[in-house]
C-alpha cells in the first residue's frame, strides 16, 4: 500500500477560490498603486515645472538687472550719448556717436537669447530711434514712439519705469518695456511678451497646456488669439472631488523688478489614459482568472488525474521490480516519462556498481602503499653496507645494522592495519634514520620530540616514513651537515583534538615549481617513478580521514623543506 500523504487535500474549486481571492487582492492593490502613482507623477511633474519656471525667472531677472544697469551706465558715462546731446542729428559728430552707440547695443543684444529691442530718445533734439537691430514692425514702432513721447511728460516716469519692467500694449500686442531716464536722455528696452516666454512654451505641457504672463492683478497678458487661456486658467483653479484624477495643475512665478509674473497651465491627458489603462488591466486580470479556472478544470481531467495514476505507479517501484506500465493514458509525455524512469533505475544500478568498484579501488590504495615503500635498492644498500662493514671488521656496527634492518622490514611486512600507535611509527622512523646514519655517517643528524599524551594516538602506518625518506633523499649530502627534525604536538579546541606532526630539514627545500603544485593541491608528475610516495600518502589520508586531514608544504626562511601534517582522531569505524 502506498503511504498516504499527511497534508490535507483540497478539491480543484478550492484552489480556484484561492486564485480568485489572490486576483481580487491584486486588483485592489493595483488600484491603490495606480492612484498613488498618478498622484506621485503629478506632484513630480509639478515640482519639475516649478523648478524650471524658477530657473527661467531667475535668468530673466538677471537679464533685466544687467540690461538696466548697462543702460543706466551708458546714459551716465558713455561719451557717445554726451556727444549726441551736444550736437544736432544732422551733424557728423552726432551720426558718428550714434553709430558707435548702435554697435555697442548690437553686441549687447547678441548676449541674450530673447530678442531685446533697444531705443534711444533725446528730448532736447526730439530724436527717437532704435540703437540696435529691431524686429519691431513699423506700425508698432510708431505706436511705441507715440507712447514714449507721452511717458516722458509724466513727472513720475522715474518711479514708474526705472528698474521696473512693465507691460504695454502696442496695436493690440503686449510688450515688456523698461525706460531708463537720465536728465533729458532716455534709453528704452522693449521685448515682445511672446518672445519673453517662448522658451517656456517649448516645454511639453499637454495638448491644452499653455504659458502666459500675468499682471499684478492676476489678469493674463495675452494676444487676442490666446484669450481662451484665461478661461482655461480659471478652470484650473477650480477644485473638485476628482482633482486627483484630473491631470491639470498651475505653476506660477513672479519676476523681481517687474509688475508681472509667469503662469504655466499644465494639462496632461496622459493621466486620464493611465486610469483607462489601469481599468483595462483589471478587466484583463478578471479574464485571466476565468481562463485559469477553465484551464485548471481541463488540467484536472486530462492531466492531473493521469499524473496521479503515474505518481501512484512510481510509489510501487523499487530497485529490483520492473516499472508498471501506464494503461489508458492519452498523454504521450507520461509514457515517455515512464520510459525515462526505467532508464533512471538502470543508471542507478550502474552507478551503485561503479561506487562499489570505486570503494574497492580506494581500499586497494592501502595495499599499494606497502608495495611502493618496499624498494629493492634500499634493501640492496643495506646488504652492501653490511658487507662493507664485514670487510672492515666492524662487528658491532654489523650487529646494529642487521638488527635495525630486520626490525625495519619486520614492521613493514607485519603491519597490515589501517592505524598504528604514534610511538610505534616514531620507533620505525628512528630505525630508518639509524640505518641511514650507518650509510651517511656524520652527514646528517636528527632530533625527535613529541608532546606528552601523544604516543598512544592512532595514525596510518608509514606516513611519517614517506616524508622522512624524502628529506634523506633530497636534503642529505656529504658536503654540508643536515639536521632533520620530527616534532609532534597536540592542538585542542572546543570541538576536537588535532595531532600536528612537523617534519623539517635544513636542506635545499622544495623546488619552486614542485612547492607551487603541492600548495595548490595539484597532482605531481609521477611518470618517472618519483614522488609516488607523497601522492600516495595524500590519497590515503583523504580516504582514511574522509578529507578531514590536512598536509601543508612550505620552505623555511633559513632554507629547508617543511611538511606539517594535521591529523584528527580517526573515524570510529576505521579503528
UniProtKB/TrEMBL annotation:
<keyword id="KW-0547">Nucleotide-binding</keyword>
<keyword id="KW-0418">Kinase</keyword>
<dbReference type="GO" id="GO:0005524">
    <property type="term" value="F:ATP binding"/>
</dbReference>
<dbReference type="InterPro" id="IPR003594">
    <property type="entry name" value="HATPase_dom"/>
</dbReference>
<protein>
    <submittedName>
        <fullName>Sensor histidine kinase YesM</fullName>
    </submittedName>
</protein>
<feature type="domain" description="Histidine kinase">
    <location>
        <begin position="463"/>
        <end position="571"/>
    </location>
</feature>
<keyword id="KW-0472">Membrane</keyword>
<dbReference type="InterPro" id="IPR010559">
    <property type="entry name" value="Sig_transdc_His_kin_internal"/>
</dbReference>
<dbReference type="InterPro" id="IPR005467">
    <property type="entry name" value="His_kinase_dom"/>
</dbReference>
<dbReference type="Pfam" id="PF02518">
    <property type="entry name" value="HATPase_c"/>
</dbReference>
<dbReference type="InterPro" id="IPR050640">
    <property type="entry name" value="Bact_2-comp_sensor_kinase"/>
</dbReference>
<keyword id="KW-1133">Transmembrane helix</keyword>
<feature type="transmembrane region" description="Helical">
    <location>
        <begin position="279"/>
        <end position="304"/>
    </location>
</feature>
<dbReference type="InterPro" id="IPR036890">
    <property type="entry name" value="HATPase_C_sf"/>
</dbReference>
<keyword id="KW-0812">Transmembrane</keyword>
<keyword id="KW-0067">ATP-binding</keyword>
<keyword id="KW-0902">Two-component regulatory system</keyword>
<dbReference type="Pfam" id="PF06580">
    <property type="entry name" value="His_kinase"/>
</dbReference>
<dbReference type="GO" id="GO:0016020">
    <property type="term" value="C:membrane"/>
</dbReference>
<dbReference type="GO" id="GO:0000155">
    <property type="term" value="F:phosphorelay sensor kinase activity"/>
</dbReference>
<keyword id="KW-0808">Transferase</keyword>
